[in-house]
Amino acid sequence: MTKLLLHSSLFACLSIAMFPTTSTAQTAEIGIDRSNLTRQSEAVQERTLQDIHALHATWFRDVLSAGTPQNMAAFVNEVRLAKKNGLKFLANVLPSAADYDNPVNENAGEDFRKRCGWAQGSSKLTQINLAKFAERMRAQLNAVKAANLTIDAFEIGNEADWICFNGDAPNGHEPTQADWMTAVRGYAHFLKAAAEVIRDPHYFPTAKIITFGIAHGSDRWDKPPHHFSNPARMVALLKNLDGSNYLDNAIYHVDGYGTHIYPYADNLEQSVTDLIRQDAAILGPDKPFWITEWGLSANAYPNKKGQTRADGIRDFYTTLDKLHLPFGPVFYYAYDLLIDAKGMLWPEASAVTARARPGNAETRPPAGAPCLECVKVRVGLPRVARGPAVDIGDNHFTEVQLPDGRFRGFDAHGETRVIDGDHPWDMGGAARIVLSRGKPGTYNSCGQWLNHVESAGKTLLGFIHDETACRYDVGQTHKSMSLGISTDYGLTWKSYGQIITGMDAPKPNKNTGEGDCTAVNGQDGYYYCYCTRNKDGGLIVARAPVSDPGPGKWMKFFQGKWDQPGLGGDATSLGNGSGHGVARWTTTGATVMTGFQKGGMGLFFSTDDITFTSLREPLLALDPGVWKRPDPSEVLAYPGLLDAKTGANQLSNSWMLVYAYWPPYEAAAKKYLVFRDVEVSVSNSPVTPQVGVLLARWCNSALHDRWSTTAAVPGNYTDYKLEAKSGYLMTVADPAKPSLELEDCVSERPGHPDHLLAEKGFCEAHQYQRLRTAGWVYSQVHQQTIPIYRCYNEQDHSHFASNKPDCEKLGTMERLLGYGLSQ
């Protein structure tokens, strides 16, 4: 792979972007329903979807049409038109008469028509022939895939808690416990059959799966009942039904709870609050609530308060915000209720999607939102997890949590290996090869490096760096990216082909192509891949829908648009492409990336996925590194950010910085894999200093060596035992207060290593071998600082640092070095 060194300046010319924050408006993703649009003419379909797009909706919902060839063709065309208008598609999966051996609806008739609007009755989910249903669904999805189209989410079932859409619901009688469980089992098996088809790697393994939209029948008005009371219990029971979890299991995970809300115009806030809180109390906040239908009747306005329907629409969104619950997209039902008899949009239609519009004030950060200068970072203890070895740490390390709570990491050097551990950083165990070099002449003939994994239930997506036409002895290789899928948590992989390639061909004695990509789910419906373009060293980005990230779906960002194909297209350079490892900080929604800036490894943040701004202080202070080993410099390569608890690159405030590491003066075979704790927080006002790196003291009794350093220590926790944490050093000098630069040095004069922490210039003047810049301390005491003394143990001939003037009775104090950060 390309040698990624931490000594160049990244994104120096990029403009400053506002630091991201969580808006008070939680319902920015807006959708609109239009049921059975496929039954209309293509002109009506196109006009409808153009109107929905013009309203700045981002989602469209309709039924996954029943499986005749004509219906399938009409549905594919509907999806095509939705995508043409930039809309994500939520397909509502319903049973069809073709799914039943004996499609007779016992509740059909006039009474049913009066209640539901049609006389045909409703079929029972318990009587579906699931094999027929699955076969029909595969045929429908095959048609969508054949047209090179994507379905972004699936809602399985519709209002299964009442008679109009489920013949297992009570038909004018109080349901017994047996009635309850019969209906729950019927829906569970229907959900499972649909989800297993959707999650098949051939179809849409990363599309969202949503439970049926709950109808919330009225206990007050529907007597005797034709619905189930407290219907969220139907969904809650799926978590442990007959010994199985139908919401989260090894095959699939449900991504959200569907619900329908039709509030009372005269008591909107209370009626919305009561329904959602009732559902949340039963289901909990572990998954977002997708409101797949909601609406207000035009006949109910003006209401008793004199409010218009537009006022009611705005009140609805405000009520959702007050609930402080996780919400997915919110779908207005229906488009037909937003147009007049001539097909023209009512004026209040714009209120439905007002907060989804670009520049709408409701989606902007509130006054006093956190700023980039308000971020505080503390880099903690390093853990050397693997090494020394020459054939490790040649990729951006990635990992996934397994169903048993353990973790599986992926390390690569031409071949990719898996390593299992009990903790995200516990990656020192045995390695097993899972990806090997391809056949001669293929795009991966020189190797496959797995740079990122994304989990979608039991399915893993693998973003694989590939190389071919390699002659590493003369600096030649050709790079690209491909996508792999694993259904056994990464032990075996199936290649789905290349997704990102460059515009150039292999050239003698040159690195060519595009690769070394790291990927992240932007949680906006897209995966983003940040890659190095070798012809100019530029950082480029491509994206693809989360629901279908396969070959041909990736588009590169070029001159302000995402319109260049991932395979062979052009791309705008975002800056210097070396050393990037991308993640998403969930606290703020920011895209965060490692990179290089003056003085070391930096952190870069973006709100738009293309414009990155660095913290003013490096994450780690680093001297220029030289790849050719041995060399007096140290090298940190292939850095990445993972969550300290989950191992994913969706980050909480507790991170791990992971990188390959060559210590100073060491040869190529002395490479290590390092995990380093990082704690991040956001204050209400600017913070100075922003970054601090832990000064730790390690003791090797056999070598009579106490080593106070900010660096990774080979043999940590074995040969070298952690003895003390001595505060934090700054990564740059404070521009407003006097400070001193400290260096980390070593001498072998005593016959063993004598590591020394000293002021800049001391090491060279006293014949110590300089290892690195350790960091900066204040010259004078300030709030939240702690003194750091240089001490010496005469018996061991060993220097060390201490926060105590008596050197903790381990030696005598030579001098006060300065004042580090206490926290």
Give the % helix.
10-25%
Oligomer: single chain
Rg calc: 30 Å
What general form does the structure show?
elongated
Terminal residue distance? 38 Å
How much of the residues is beta strand, in percent? 35-45%
User: Strand pairing plus helix content: what structural class?
Assistant: alpha+beta
Overall residue-averaged pLDDT value = 90
Low-confidence stretches: 1-27, 357-370
Biggest β-sheet description: 9 strands, mixed
Number of helices: 10
How many β strands by DSSP?
40
What this model shows, in words?
By secondary structure, this protein is an alpha+beta fold. 14% of the residues lie in helices and 35% in strands. A hairpin with a 4-residue loop joins β23 and β24. It is elongated, with a radius of gyration of 30 Å.
Give the topology, please.
Layout lengths: L29 E4 L8 H13 L4 E5 L5 H16 L3 E6 L16 H7 L13 H17 L6 E6 L18 H22 L9 E6 L18 H5 L20 E5 L6 H16 L5 E6 L14 H15 L3 E6 L16 H4 L22 E15 L8 E4 L5 E7 L1 E7 L9 E5 L11 E10 L2 E13 L4 E11 L7 E7 L10 E11 L4 E8 L4 E8 L9 E4 L2 E5 L15 E5 L4 E8 L2 E7 L6 E2 L5 E2 L13 E9 L6 E2 L2 E9 L8 E12 L8 E10 L4 E5 L11 E10 L8 E9 L6 E6 L2 H4 L3 E10 L6 E9 L4 E5 L9 E10 L2
Parallel strand pairs: 1-2, 1-8, 2-3, 3-4, 4-5, 6-7, 7-8, 9-32, 16-18, 23-29
Antiparallel strand pairs: 9-31, 10-11, 11-12, 12-13, 14-15, 15-16, 16-17, 18-19, 19-20, 20-21, 21-22, 23-24, 24-25, 25-26, 25-27, 28-30, 30-31, 32-33, 32-34, 35-36, 35-37, 38-39, 38-40
In short:
This protein has 823 residues and is α+β, with helices and mostly antiparallel strands.
